[in-house]
Write a structure and sequence with these properties.
225 residues, mainly beta, seven-stranded antiparallel β-sheet, 16 strands, globular
Length: 225
């Protein structure tokens, strides 16, 4: 067979080491030698001796599903082989979490991660009963985490002198040592005069980074009223 489809740019090459690598902009390959975790339904291909097992509610937990209608069921992948993961052709990125790090991320952006990472569900401080995510997943430990994002994300530095205000539906995650609170930037009058209409944003203060996707779309909510 010949043609661009069978060029080296599309052809999968042999893996050189266990673990997670970005196969291309839309897909992550994980060479499994033991166990790893991924969102259910994200596996698009695999080879080798692998077993897949549901992990219940997973990232997002029963509490988040009960309160917000959201949640991210996980699956464990065990054995030896290779698996490829993607989600709705979104862009894929890898985060290296090291001891002492803490990364808070919206569950909808999680694709897969090393079993060596720990995660817990945390309430977004200051969000009360409002915002794009009442509960986020906090990852700690030592390992790699793959995220998906609609488009190319923005990584914005946050400092004590320059807090950052983000749309609650656009935020992907943020690093440790950032404090969150809700911020109202416009009055009803300013919106009537042609303002943006973004009445509430999530304000982040401290020293660190916030990751934002270039989209406010919320496909999970499209069927809700």
């Amino acid at each position: 067979m010949k043609g661009d489809l069978f060029s080296s740019g599309h052809m999968v090459q042999p893996s050189v080491a266990p673990g997670m690598t970005v196969e291309n902009a839309k897909c992550v390959r994980y060479t499994v030698n033991g166990e790893m975790l991924a969102r259910q339904g994200a596996m698009i291909a695999y080879r080798g001796s692998l077993q897949f097992e549901r992990k219940g509610q997973g990232v997002g937990g029963i509490l988040k599903r009960a309160v917000t209608g959201e949640g991210l069921p996980l699956m464990a992948v065990r054995g030896q082989g290779e698996a490829w993961f993607a989600h709705e052709a979104q862009n894929c990125f890898v985060v290296d979490v090291e001891p002492g790090d803490e990364f808070t991320v919206n569950g909808r952006n999680v694709l897969c991660f090393d079993a060596t990472l720990s995660y817990r569900i945390a309430t977004v401080r200051g969000a009360g009963m409002t915002g794009g995510g009442l509960f986020n997943s906090v990852f700690t430990g030592h390992g790699r985490l793959s995220l998906v994002c609609e488009g190319s994300p923005l990584v914005i530095p946050v400092s004590a002198q320059y807090p950052v205000y983000v749309d609650t539906d656009a935020v992907v995650g943020w690093t440790a040592n950032l404090q969150t609170s809700l911020h109202r930037s416009q009055s009803i009058g300013s919106m009537l005069r042609g303002g943006s209409g973004e009445a509430v944003q999530l304000m982040l203060q401290g020293e660190g980074y916030v990751v934002v996707r270039p989209s406010e779309a919320t496909p999970q909510k499209s069927g809700q009223h």
